[in-house]
Task: inverse folding
């Protein structure tokens, strides 16, 4: 049978395209039908509705933004849920609260389905270049069964154990990502306000021992003031909120993440929620210029 793919957003579209280009027989669906056309051109079949996806695919990949959207797509809490998931493998590749994922797994298994948690580390460019890192959690046999399917989308798959360990791993990695990019933005802001040559700033950062793929991309964005989205401020804010909630629930301190969370909330409040996460520099600029800012959450 074909593989289903639901959710063709900033990340889902290049991920699905890599599957289609690798020869995976895909049937796709998206709430905004315009996003399906590029998949149709790559050889995927476009379903008329969600039920057609589940009717034609045993394995269905979900790359959806929120738990509410996932529940709506699966019909969770309605009579549609059992009919959709029974006898299917549902692969959840988005980022949600770990506890939500744990509950979803229990409901899918109770309905006669199988579940794999498979969040990704990486933004739009790694998705386009099939360089994502996929973290996997679930029952060992089904994880190993679907692991080769995900190969065309990623550079590496890492098995993390049972649900929700993959999402907890994703949140841990996100602390490193968010604090790193925020620190780089603050460094660029400092350099710019000191009147330094920003081209030289980028050259030093790129040549130094802290350089990485993400620092080279984001330093370019900061120097060129190019905030076209790869990972949006609003999405990073959501992810930082998930980290903070998980930390509070476990009694874990997260002071650096908490400080970053406020800055991303302030950047969103300034109207830049759909810009790239490097635009967090706008909150720093507003503070330097003594612009009145909301406190964030």
Result:
């Amino acid at each position: 049978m074909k593989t289903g793919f639901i959710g063709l957003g900033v990340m889902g579209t290049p991920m699905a395209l890599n599957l289609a280009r690798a020869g995976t027989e895909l049937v796709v669906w998206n709430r905004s039908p315009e996003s399906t056309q590029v998949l149709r051109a790559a050889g995927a079949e476009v379903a008329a509705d969600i039920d057609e996806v589940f009717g034609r695919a045993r394995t269905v990949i979900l790359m959806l933004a929120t738990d509410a959207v996932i529940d709506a797509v699966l019909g969770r809490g309605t009579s549609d849920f059992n009919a959709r998931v029974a006898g299917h493998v549902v692969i959840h590749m988005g980022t949600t609260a770990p506890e939500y994922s744990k509950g979803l797994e229990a409901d899918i298994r109770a309905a006669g389905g199988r579940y794999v948690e498979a969040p990704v580390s990486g933004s739009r460019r790694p998705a386009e270049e099939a360089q994502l890192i996929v973290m996997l959690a679930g029952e060992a046999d089904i994880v190993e069964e679907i692991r080769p399917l995900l190969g065309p989308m990623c550079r590496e798959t890492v098995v993390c154990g049972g649900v929700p360990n993959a999402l907890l791993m994703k949140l841990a990695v996100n602390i490193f990502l968010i604090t790193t990019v925020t620190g780089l933005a603050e460094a660029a802001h400092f350099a710019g306000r000191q009147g330094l040559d920003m081209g030289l700033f980028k050259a030093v950062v790129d040549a130094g021992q802290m350089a990485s793929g993400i620092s080279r991309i984001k330093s370019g964005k900061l120097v060129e003031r190019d905030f076209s989205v790869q990972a949006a401020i609003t999405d990073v804010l959501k992810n930082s909120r998930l980290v903070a909630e998980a930390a509070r629930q476990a009694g874990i301190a997260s002071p650096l993440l908490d400080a970053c969370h406020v800055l991303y909330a302030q950047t969103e409040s300034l109207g830049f929620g759909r810009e790239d996460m490097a635009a967090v520099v706008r909150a720093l600029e507003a503070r330097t210029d003594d612009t009145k800012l909301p406190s964030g959450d």
